[in-house]
Amino acid sequence: MILGRQLVAALSLAAVAATMGRAQAANSPHCGAPGKPPCPLQRWMRREVAAPYAKRHDAALAKHLAELVRVNPEPSRWHHWDLFAREGAADAREHRDPVLSCVRCHDVYRAKYNAKYRERSLAFRQGS
Ligand code: HEC
User: Fold this and answer.
1) Distances (CA, A) of 122 to 24, 100, 118
2) pLDDT recorded at residue 20
3) Apex 128 CA angle, 68 and 67, nearest 5
4) Which residue from 4, 38, 77, 115 could staple onto 42, CB 3.0 to 4.6 Å apart?
């Protein structure tokens, strides 16, 4: 029984610690908040995607949207991420407006990405 209690106590302490860690991360972000620099993907999106999109630089936009596949943090689970990135890239390559791909990916993944991965530096996986 004592063992059981200790286990429960240890587990709840761990849960409290995890919650505090999360709260702390949410309360003092290192990026993306007023007075902080933009977060890595946020900065990349602005420079490499939104800027060529605004200027209708379709070739650069297509290249960068295609590169987004290699940024997918959960490639074995976030299948639509790759689909949206590839659709957007194909649209830009063929001089169609890729905006639906932007909106779809943001709707489905932006909040999830920001909850788990926002502060991590951008890593482009090799080979896809
Ligand atoms: C495959 C997914 C995906 C696609 C496609 C995509 N985005 Fe994003 N975008 C994201 C994610 C995830 C973020 C959140 C990054 C952050 O805030 O740290 C983001 C953030 C942004 C931001 C930053 C907004 C801010 O807070 O300053 C801009 C601008 C942006 N995207 C523009 C675009 C445009 C324009 C397109 C289409 C031409 C596009 N994105 C396509 C996933 C995508």
Assistant:
1) 22, 24, 10
2) 46
3) 20
4) 38
Atom of ligand 1 nearest to the CA of 118: 18
Token pair 């933009």 is found at 38
Distance 87 CA to ligand 1 centre (A): 14
Tokens of 12: 């709840």
Q: Position of tokens 């830009």?
A: 92
* Of the candidates 73, 71, 47, the residue with the CA atom closest to the CA atom of residue 60: 47
Q: Cα(50)–Cα(22) distance, rounded to whole angstroms?
A: 30
What residues flank ligand 1, with Cβ below 6 Å? 32, 39, 41-42, 45-46, 49-50, 53, 65, 68, 81, 84-85, 88, 98, 101-102, 105-106, 109-110, 113-114, 118
Q: What is the pLDDT of residue 110?
A: 98
* pLDDT-flagged residues of the chain (< 50): 17, 20-21, 23-25
Distance of CA 103 to the CA centre of its chain: 14
